[in-house]
């Protein structure tokens, strides 16, 4: 199976569950998928004589990244998926590809990924009486300090350190100024542009800003 | 008529519209035109921006600079924090790689930034483009008060080879041009405490604002002139907070543009000085 055929297979199998796929270099394909697509992907790969290699688990501070490495007819396919640290859950594929069982156990105990319906949830490398809920390779949740988080959220949401209050709008009018300054929050198209900028610049991926909730991910300490 | 793209920032429209009114009046008297930067956003705040993702913060700044650049104008700020952020972003974006990376983000919102124009503080615009002697000629009501000058930390931000005291000295000269008597103190260049107050209010009050207020009081200072709305708000709200620590002050704190407007003959009541949290209105009526 050639690299392009691997990408075609993923597109056909996963459709919108496939976030991206590219030939990273000769004989290597890197694809990012939604966690919900992992079982469909595993089933399709099994039908194509996959050889499982390893699951690399990384803690980015915001997400747990699982990188499923498999060999497809001499080509390396890395399936990457991100689990939000607030709920780092994904379906186990150990019943589809039995060789993944030990790798899932390793990712579970070292960084805290949770594999739903895993047939074996016992420790692999940690001692049996290891403290529950303590993951030796997990990082603290990456979140802006509480003293700056509200202002950062406000900048991402309204494009200013704070929204204009109705009282100040009235005071501005009384003073003979336009009730709304030319800030982005006063102009719908400009506000939309700022929102697009925030999303495109990486504040969502790297800064943990959730545009739907208009809040930073994680909780205040 | 010379034109300037004015970056009002967040604080002036939201907390100190009196500074906006004063600026408009002063520009009118000076024969300068204000060009609005429609759709600008927070610079972003120099402290928060450093904690946010750097690429995001730089893209936000670049978008703001691109708005002024599209009009072919320098960006003129009335806030030291905005100056720090936008000045620094402009410097960073001199680097071709960084500019390319930021432009790849800006292109997705239909904008581009080429680094053609400058970021300038209002103090240097008045000092360099207008000149203290021209300002003096417009003074109709010489200020009769002993005033302290608080520069604010970011006004010391200087290009390589530039005298870091250039802009702070220009500020002092502009205040003196209004006729005010300058009360100098060794603590003039101490931070107002705005950034640290968010982390540890008591520390900020004890190490920054309280010693400054004590010095002002001992020297018979009647008011403090700033060129930054964040310093202004901090020094006014801070006085209220100091009551918790047993210290009571009633020191008017106001922006350079308000001082200039008053000295140019704008009646205090036209400036909406009542938005201040210190007795600026009372001082204004007394000193002109």
Overview of this protein structure:
The complex is a heterodimer of chains A (221) and B (288). Chain A is of the alpha/beta class. Helices cover 29% and strands 24% of the residues of chain A. In chain A, the strands form three sheets. A five-stranded mixed sheet of chain A has the order 1-2-5-4-3. In chain A, strand 8 and strand 9 form a beta hairpin. Chain B folds into two domains: 2-121, Glutathione S-transferase Yfyf (Class Pi), Chain A, domain 2, CATH 1.20.1050; 132-287, Rossmann fold, CATH 3.40.50.11810. Helices cover 50% and strands 10% of the residues of chain B. Chain B has 14 helices and eight strands. The A-B interface holds A 144-145, 147-148, 151-152, 155, 159-162, 164-165, 168, 171-172, 174-177, 181-184, 187, 189-190, 193-194, 196-198, 200-203, 206-207 and B 8, 10-11, 13-15, 17-18, 20-21, 36-42, 44-45, 47-48, 51-53, 55-56, 59-60, 63, 105-106, 108-111, 198-199, 272, 275.
